[in-house]
Design goal:
It is a single chain. The protein is α+β, with helices and mostly antiparallel strands. 62% of the residues lie in helices and 8% in strands. Among the domains are: 128 residues, no CATH class; 111 residues, no CATH class; 206 residues, no CATH class. Strand 11 and strand 12 form a beta hairpin.
Length: 647
């Protein structure tokens, strides 16, 4: 209410020209008693007079007052602003710009406006800030209005639009002015036009402005509905259960408060005399009917409050109209708001689907990066490598070590990618030469051996780096997110991982289709004996292929480390999804791996959307679905063709 009065005073003051030129000190002296009293109820005219004076010092006075830097000299009531030098001394300045030197503070009274007055001063300062030469100040003013919109902001905001030189700030001002029109304008036609202007806008501030217009409250009345009625309600229906209807009757004073069974029992116990209650023996109170009779007898003599009978409640429900009443009084405005919100809800639903699709695509790219190396070692070579996740972990730690050496995050990431490849390639070659080569065609032994290696590698990582998560920091240009609107956004890191996944898809296809290693790998995979007879060394090809798959896992570790925490258990978080990706997509087919990653990523995001608070349940449902899927497609989405398919 005070802010509305302030806005009215500002408007009236703008229409009334002063009879003679006043200085800022004249205005302060005129309202000196009100300012010194600092009462929110009476301070409005003083703030209005300063804000509408047109004097260049007005902004400074209001700012100093708001910041509790304005003082009043006790001897003559002159207002100044001062800086505190120590506990007893002030450095005094006049609002005309004069330096008045130092003075003891006991000769001055500090003005300390409370939070309500400071808020009113802030509203008055908006008109100055909106026209400030500094664009940053104008932006700050707009942000302040957006955070706490008020009726008093509307006039100065509209007045500042035509003179705004920044196209961006002008658009913000026009949008804010439209929102303030929806909230505060007295003309229904203007409000409806403003609502139509923002129809379909996905901004949270638009919904914040529209939702109060369609807010309702439930009313019970014995006469005809009065106001903007949203709908009538029938007691006992799903929309208005009987208990809620009775509560509304009591709230409206139509029905006296009822008592509960527990309250009735307590009242009966309190009125036992000589083994009787209301003329009824205590041993006869086993039924509810007898307890009701005893209570009625007590009520007839005024010993307890009278209880409302079911018949009286039924009669009151029958004679009363229940309805929901809009907080907004104009039905045309509420109809326009409902229509606009319905349009917004439709667009929000579509954009939520788009956001979910982007999340699924992002997760799929992470799974694809994690699985692309396994697609070589397991999908092509048929080796069940349970230590594949640890190669991912080794790549992430390699990136961390590189960042300790090279502090520039962009350069360190560019160096870390080939470094991680070389480290994990060498580790993969060593593992293949020392362990895997002796276990080809023995899948169970391979699984057990690589599982033991994975545990050993995790323990080595703990011994070197500890159990605390290590940071793998992304470059500054990957900070933030690509924001389409208030619903759809995706972080730049996820976009980078998606691009990296596409790059490695192309690299893998080039290696397998256009290089000698790829040709030899495919030959050894399909028929190792025939490949050996053609001069190909299967042992060498297996070693390089396993090293290649391990090296790609290391690069995936660098990418995943930018997104997830780098710990010794990093790889174990992705090993299950990696195997599922390869198996579901189709063993030995890179396109199948891509489709498998897309399917698993999408499925997990959809399940998480339905059950957002339980990610473990989402993974469980996903595994169950994949088990069922494999029953119908045991060779995956894209089955391997050729000799290897029959082995």
């Amino acid at each position: 209410m005070t802010r509305i009065l302030l806005a009215i005073w500002l408007s009236l003051s703008a229409l009334i020209a002063p009879a003679h030129a006043q200085s800022i000190q004249d205005i302060l002296q005129e309202y000196g008693d009100v300012i010194a009293k600092s009462s929110r109820k009476s301070i409005g005219p003083a703030i209005t007079a300063l804000a509408s004076s047109g004097l260049p010092e007005a902004k400074s006075v209001l700012e100093k007052w708001q910041n509790k830097e304005m003082w009043m000299r006790e001897s003559d009531g002159e207002f100044v602003w001062a800086e505190e030098i120590d506990r007893d001394t002030l450095h005094i300045h006049s609002f005309a710009g004069d330096d008045l030197g130092e003075a003891p503070d006991d000769a001055f009274k500090q003005l300390k406006p409370n939070s309500g007055i400071r808020s009113m001063i802030g509203s008055a300062l908006v008109q100055f800030q909106l026209n400030d030469p500094d664009p940053d100040q104008r932006r700050i003013a707009l942000e302040a209005i957006a955070r706490d919109p008020d009726e008093s902001h509307r006039a100065p905001l509209r007045a500042s639009i035509d003179g705004e030189t920044s196209p961006t700030l002008k658009a913000q001002k026009e949008r804010l002015a439209t929102l303030l029109t929806i909230r505060f304008d007295d003309d229904p036609a203007a409000r409806i036009a403003a609502i139509d202007k923002l129809r379909g806008d996905l901004g949270l501030d638009v919904r914040a402005a529209l939702n109060p217009l369609v807010a309702t409250r439930r009313v019970a009345a014995t006469d005809a509905p009065d106001g903007n009625v949203a709908r009538t309600l029938k007691p006992g229906s799903d929309a208005l259960p009987r208990a809620e209807a009775i509560a509304l009757l009591m709230q409206a004073g139509i029905l006296p408060a009822t008592i509960t069974r527990a309250e009735q029992r307590a009242a009966l116990e309190a009125n036992i005399e000589n083994g009787e209650v209301g003329g009824i023996r205590v041993n006869q109170l086993s039924s509810q009917e007898m307890r009701d009779r005893a209570y009625a007898a007590l009520a007839s003599v005024g010993a307890v409050p009278a209880a409302t009978t079911d018949a009286e409640i039924d009669a009151a429900l029958e004679d009363t109209t229940f309805y929901e009443l809009y907080a907004e009084s104009d039905p045309d405005v509420t109809a326009a708001a409902e229509d606009a919100l319905e349009t917004i809800r439709t667009k929000v639903g579509f954009n939520q689907f788009l956001d979910l699709a982007l999340d699924a695509l992002s997760l799929a790219s992470i799974y694809f990066l994690a699985a692309i190396g396994l697609a070589i070692t397991f999908g092509v070579m048929g080796v069940i490598n349970m230590a594949h996740g640890e190669f991912i972990m080794m790549g992430a730690y390699t990136g961390y070590v590189i960042q300790q050496i090279i502090p520039d995050y962009t350069v360190s990431i560019l160096v870390a990618i080939p470094a991680a490849f070389m480290v994990t390639f060498a580790a993969g070659v060593a593992m293949e030469r020392l362990v895997i080569r002796w276990l080809y065609s023995r899948p169970l032994e391979t699984l057990l051996a690589t599982f033991g290696i994975s545990i050993a590698l995790q323990q080595i990582a703990k011994n070197i780096f500890g159990t605390q998560a290590r940071p793998l920091t992304s470059p500054g240009w990957l900070d933030g997110a690509w924001v389409l609107n208030d619903v759809v956004s995706i972080s730049y890191i996820r976009i980078a991982i998606f691009v990296l996944a596409l790059i490695f898809l192309g690299v893998f296809l080039f290696i397998m289709k256009r290089t000698r290693l790829g040709l030899e790998t495919r030959a050894v995979t399909q028929n190792p004996k025939m490949a050996a007879s053609m001069g190909i060394n299967p042992d060498r090809v297996n070693m390089l292929t396993f090293g290649l798959g391990s090296g790609i896992a290391g690069i995936a570790g660098v990418a995943i480390g930018l997104y997830a925490k780098v710990t010794s258990e990093l790889g174990s978080d992705y090993i299950v999804q990696s195997f599922m990706t390869v198996v579901v997509g189709g063993v030995g087919n890179i396109w199948g791996t891509l489709l498998g990653a897309t399917m698993i990523g999408s499925l997990q995001k959809v399940i998480e959307w339905f059950n957002p608070s339980n990610t473990l349940a989402a993974q469980t449902y996903m595994i169950i679905f994949i088990i069922i899927f494999i029953q119908f497609r045991p060779r995956g989405i894209i089955a391997l063709k050729g000799r290897a398919a029959g082995d």
